[in-house]
Amino acid sequence: MRLTKEDQQALNTTLAPYLADDAVRQMASYTQHGTVSTLSHCMNVARTSLWLSRKLHLNVDTKTMLVGALLHDFFLYDWHGAGWRHSYRHAERACRNAVAHFDVDEQTQHVIRCHMWPMGIMHVPVTREAVLVNLSDKYNSLHETLFQRH
Ligand SMILES: [Fe+2]
Ligand SMILES: [Fe+2]
Questions:
Q1: How far is the CA of 45 from the centre of ligand 1 (A)?
Q2: Could you tell me the distance, in angstroms and rounded to a whole number, from the CA of residue 72 to the centre of ligand 1?
Q3: Domains of the chain, residue spans
Q4: pLDDT tens, 25-50?
Q5: pLDDT tens for residues 78-97?
Q6: Ligand 1 mean position, distance from CA 9 (Å)
Q7: Is the pTM higher than 0.90?
Q8: Which ligand has the minimum distance to the alpha carbon of residue 120?
Q9: Do 109 and 119 meet the contact criterion of CB atoms below 8 Å apart?
C-alpha cells in the first residue's frame, strides 16, 4: 500500500512530536513480531490505517487515528517474557502510558483500548478511527509474523 505524498507528509508532521519522545523511541528496542520492532509495527499500523481510510473514503479525525495507532502498543516491555496475560492486558497498559506521557484524549484512548477486540470482549471499537486501527493491527501482525522474519 502506498500513501500519497500529501498523506505521508501529514503522517510525518502529526507524529513528529511523539517520535521525538524518548519513551516512544524505546519501542524501537523491543521486538514485536518476527524481526519487526514494536515501533516499526506501530508505524506500519499508522500507515495502513491512513491508507485504508482513504481507500474507503472515510471521514476520520486523522490525528486521533494516527496517534492512537502509534501508541496502541505503547506498553514498554518485552512481551516475549510476559506470559499469556499480556495478550489481553497490554492494551490497557498502553493506554495508561499514553495518558501518563501525552495526556491523550478520550477518543485516542478508545483507539488504544479497543485495538485487541474481539479479544478483550468488553472493549468494542465504536469509532471509525478505532475500527481502522483494530483492522490494521490484525493485518500487520499477521503480515509481520508470516513474512518479516529475517
Ligand atoms: Fe497490541
Ligand atoms: Fe499491535
A1: 10
A2: 6
A3: 16-147
A4: 999 999 998 889 999 999 999 999 99
A5: 998 888 889 889 999 999 99
A6: 25
A7: yes
A8: 1
A9: no
CA angle 42, 17, 44 (to 5 degrees): 15
Q: What is the pLDDT of residues 48-72, one digit of tens each?
A: 999 999 999 999 999 999 999 999 9
With b for 16 or more beta-carbon neighbours within 10 A and e for fewer, the 110-130 pattern comes to: bbbbbbbbeebeebebebbbb
| 51 contacts: CB under 8 Å, gap ≥ 6 | 1, 2, 3, 7
Nearest ligand, CA 116: 1
Distance, CA of 45 to CA of 34 (rounded, Å): 15
Q: Check if CATH label 1.10.3210.10 holds for domain 16-147.
A: yes
